[in-house]
Amino acid sequence: MNLQNIISEIEKADPEVYDRLDTRRSAMKKFANLSGKVAVASIPFALGSMFKTAYGQSNSTVNDVLNFALTLEYLEAEFYNNIVGSPGYMTASAAAQGALSKIKDDENKHVAFLKSVLGAAAVAKPTFDFTAGNGSNTGPFAGYLGFYAVQLAMAQTFEDTGVRAYKGQAPALQGNRTVLTAALEIHSVEARHASHIRQMRRALNAAVPAGQTVKPWITLNQSGIDFPAGNAAIQKSYNGEEVVTQAGVTITGIGGNSFIDAKAASEAFDEPLTTAQILDIVDPFIV
Amino acid sequence: MLDTKTEVSQPDLIYEATAKPFSRRKFFGIVGAGTAIMATAAACKKDDNNSSNDGVNLGSGDTGILNYAYALEQLEAAFYTQVIMTPYASISALEMEYLTDIRNHEVAHRELFKAALAGNAIVALEVNFSSIDFTSRTSVLATAKAFEDLGVTAYNGAGQLISTTSAGATYLTLAGKIVSVEARHAALIADLISNGTFANTVDGMGLDSARTPSEVLAIAGAYIKTKINASNLPS
User: Among B190, B122, B69, B129, which residue's Cα sits nearest to residue A195?
Assistant: First the structure.
């Protein structure tokens, strides 16, 4: 697939295509760069979702979004399938093992559910490299199977990313009430998982950057994770969470409530990520 | 139907208790009874748009959905405000930290809807927490869990009722930004009650559930004294 040719063709029919895509222009460049890395099957839906923003919903949009979600669920499910029973996992408490096993089951159910909805249109599972090494298996998370704390840091990041991904896709599903509701029903489950993983990290007294505290919710753009090799990759999942303005309204101190500081104002609202931002985050994990 | 005195003064007392404890109470304390009656009449007239014999009218379309969310956030914010004002016995430092955070989040949600709705916002609702024992950890956490799980199902069910307009997409995203925070609260509260139960609401397909506004309001109604009219909401 040649993205530049597609854009050129559209430009002939619609000279304002770049204005319509506007903020997506950098994303287009990124897609061109990523096209060799991201599973080929994922390109059409990523593209479809992007054009949806510019041109409104098409019949294929719902499937595109569902396949996007399915790819993320494949990633989460395989991650938990890998860590449950791993040497690192075996060092955790019985309660922690039970929680990770429960989350593993939920993620595998999400995969099964989305595949059942998509039927023959479902994309195949990509090959993953959970070290974030693009297939080298020597990325920053190399050795994660042996370290429980690293597993929890990765789990937290995947769950928080999943929440932001579903949130970003919701408007694209507005034309299909059933699918939208199902997506929202998965979205809140991912948030429940994120909350619990964060509590597990708090209980573990996991390494956090100076001045940060891990809570069940996201404070500012803080990951609450200090894992030097992976910090750069992890931070992408938290950038943009620090906003304190919603619908044009400043949340800090709103209604004269001085206790709503910037931390509380950012925590009270989780922020969406676009398809392009999500693909950028997961790209190192996809061979 | 509430009597006029209750409709005006009591909700304000409750509301002010959550935000600015003294100003309105002081006002009613200073003015004489005769003046209060006049103020009551004026307030009723002003409220014609969202009050009727059938209760506080949430309105229709996206405004109705936003008022529906505003009503639920008022309930949650009032609850956690009380929890923090009168913490249950032997509350741990960690629980106090978390419940204070949640109070802050819910007040932020309530105030955002109030600001976003502006002149279309419903009045401050009068809550009824007589069934809650705020001195009891068990009672407080059980109620918190009920409210958070209810909130998650409410937002999950409301998403499909929002219009497919450009503004509607913004409101849907806004609801999405809030519902995941409610789900984070719900999971935490469930874990405080019994560790590991963060996702016990999830069904066999791995999904949380959704409720219609009428289902939600039937449950929430036990804690809201003000009668709410949701008959004009989209369905």
Answer: B190
Interface contacts (A, B; CB < 8 Å)? 195
Q: Do A113 and B207 touch (CB under 8 A)?
A: yes
Compute the distance between CA of residue B110 and CA of residue B121 in angstroms, rounded to an integer: 11
Pick the closest to residue A241 from A207, A213, A281, A270 (CA basis): A270
Best A105, A109, A113, A192 residue to mutate vs chain B (most B CBs within 10 Å): A192
Secondary-structure breakdown of chain B: helix, strand, coil percentages, each rounded to the nearest 5: 65, 5, 30
Question: Would you give per-residue pLDDT tens digits along chain A (287 residues)?
Answer: 333 444 444 444 444 444 444 444 444 443 344 333 444 344 444 444 443 343 344 447 899 999 999 999 999 999 999 999 999 999 999 999 999 999 999 999 999 999 999 999 999 999 999 999 999 999 999 999 999 999 999 999 999 999 999 999 999 999 899 999 999 999 999 999 999 999 999 999 989 999 999 999 999 999 999 999 999 999 999 999 999 999 999 999 999 999 999 999 999 999 999 999 999 999 999 99
Q: Is B164 on the interface with A (CB under 8 A)?
A: yes
Separation in Å, CA of B34 to nearest CA in chain A = 30
Cα→Cα distances A168→A118, A273, A276, A280, B179, Å: 20, 5, 10, 14, 13
Mutate one of B109, B111, B148, B180 to test the A interface: name it (highest A CB count within 10 A): B180
Which chain B residue lies closest to A256 (C-alpha atoms)?
B19
Tell me the pLDDT tens digit for each residue of B1-48: 333 333 333 333 344 334 333 333 333 333 333 333 333 333 444 444
Beta strands in B45-160 (DSSP E): 51-52, 55-57
Q: Could you tell me how many residues make up chain A?
A: 287
Q: Assess B162–A contact: CB distance below 8 Å, yes or no.
A: yes
The pTM for the full model equals 0.81
* Residue A101 in contact with partner chain B when CB distance is under 8 A: no
Q: Contacts of residue A99 in chain B, CB cutoff 8 Å?
A: 196, 198
Q: Complex ipTM, two decimals?
A: 0.82
Instruction: Report the alpha-carbon distance of residue B17 to residue B9 in Å, rounded.
Output: 12
Interface residue A272 vs chain B (CB under 8 A): yes
Contact state of A99 with B187 under an 8 Å Cβ cutoff: no
Q: Which amino acid is at A39?
A: A
- Whether B168 and A174 lie within 8 Å, measured CB to CB: yes
Q: What separation in angstroms does the CA of A35 have from each of A31, A38, A121, A136?
A: 6, 6, 21, 18
